[in-house]
Amino acid sequence: MKLTFIDNYELAAITDDGAVSLAEVTAELDVLPPQQRINRVIEEWDTYRPRFEAAIANGPAKALTSVRLRAPLPKPTAIVCMAVNYMENGTLKEKPPQQAFFKNSHAVIGDGDSMHLPDAPASIFEGEAEMALVIGRKATRVPADDAYSYVFGYLNFVDGSARGLPGGMGLPYFMKGQDDFAPLGPWITTADEVPNPMNLAVKQWVNGKVTHDYNTDDMAHDIPTSVHFVTSNTSLEAGDVIALGTNHGGLHPLQHGDVVEQEIEGLGRLTFNVHDDLERTWERATRAERGKDGPAPQLSGKYAP
Q1: Phi/psi at 101 (nearest 5 deg)?
Q2: Cα angle at 210 between 127 and 289, to 5 degrees?
Q3: Domain boundary at 70, 88, 115, which?
Q4: Most buried residue among 27, 170, 182, 232 by CB atoms closer than 10 A?
Q5: Domain boundary among 43, 70, 97
Q6: What residues contact 93, with CB distance under 8 A and at least 6 apart?
Q7: Cβ-based burial of 25 (10 A; exposed 0-12, middle 13-18, buried ≥19)
Q8: Residues 167, 234: one domain?
């Protein structure tokens, strides 16, 4: 099943025919804010799933062009991102050590929203194409061999990054924690519809040009290992997110006016816009295209060299 919020944060299922409202079958949750509503649904999935299936079978579907898709997880309590978690298309000889960081829940934006680039002295802004998983129940010190039982579903995730900031700015707090730096969606696809999340094509386009193009089978520390690593340090709850990292060769500068699209096989296509009041510009090339160490240089605007 595919779940998200539409319009004024009305819970809906996404089907081949469009969006089917689940408002009537979740009326008892209306007193809760959207994130708490989806958390409750996830926690009590065995109860809500048959209700949703009946609603989908009987209810009319609205065309997706007639509704506004919202972030399916508007304000997760925890957003944990795995860092340097890919083998870079097999070019790394050894697995990098496991590491992770948090993002601010105010970083979340949904399909059709805008990422606003901050007035900060970053050398470049990039959006890492990632798959993320959604936790289904309280998870503390989860054994790797039981990790999948804690996964409710999967979705597209973009890890916005402001790189090259001065060291005194509290990295990665400023680099990764900015508002709007966590586009996700366009919906949650439940785990039962994703037979093998470790073999999915991941693509991202910027203004129609392919930037990222890789497969999750290149992940250095797989989903069970990552879930175990994160929950060994931090307990997670239903509705929390673990983003699983990216292949860095596709990283590309984000700048004013860009339209970014991302699609992971079976998880839908997430689209967002980029807005920069300063209208800074960078050379438009991926790291792989440049064939050089480091990202593309800033060409014009405030903080240009």
Answers
A1: -150, 165
A2: 80
A3: 70
A4: 182
A5: 70
A6: none
A7: middle
A8: yes
Tell me if the pTM is above 0.90.
yes
62, part of any domain: yes
> What is the rounded CA–CA span in Å between residue 244 and residue 2?
20
- How far apart CA 248 and CA 251 sit, in angstroms, is 5
The beta-strand segments (E) located in 104-196 are: 108-109, 114-116, 124-135, 151-163, 182-190
90 pLDDT more than 90: no
Max Cα–Cα distance, the chain, nearest Å: 60
From the number of C-beta atoms within 10 Å of its C-beta (0-12, 13-18, 19+), residue 199 rates as exposed
* Neighbouring residues of 237: CB distance < 8 A, sequence distance ≥ 6: 39, 77, 78, 135, 137, 138, 139
52 inside domain: yes
Alpha-carbon distances of 107 from 65, 78, 98, 279, rounded to whole Å: 25, 11, 23, 21
**What is the residue-averaged pLDDT of the chain?**
96
Structural domain span for residue 31: 2-70
Residue 260, beta-bridge partner list: 206, 272
Strands (E), the chain: 2-6, 10-15, 18-21, 69-70, 79-82, 100-103, 108-109, 114-116, 124-135, 151-163, 182-190, 201-206, 209-215, 241-243, 259-264, 269-275, 281-282, 298-300
- Which of the 8 DSSP states describes residue 117? P
118: left (phi over 0), alpha (psi -120 to 50) or beta: beta
Amino acid at 202: V
Q: How far apart are CA 243 and CA 127, in angstroms?
A: 13
User: Residue 296 in contact with residue 253, Cβ under 8 Å?
Assistant: yes
Q: What is the pLDDT of residues 223-265, one digit of tens each?
A: 999 999 999 999 999 999 999 999 999 999 999 999 999 999 9
DSSP state of 96: P
Q: Based on the domain organization, do 137 and 274 belong to the same domain? A: yes
The token pair that represents 171 in the structure block: 């990295």
Q: At what angle do helices 45-58 and 34-43 cross, to 10 degrees?
A: 100
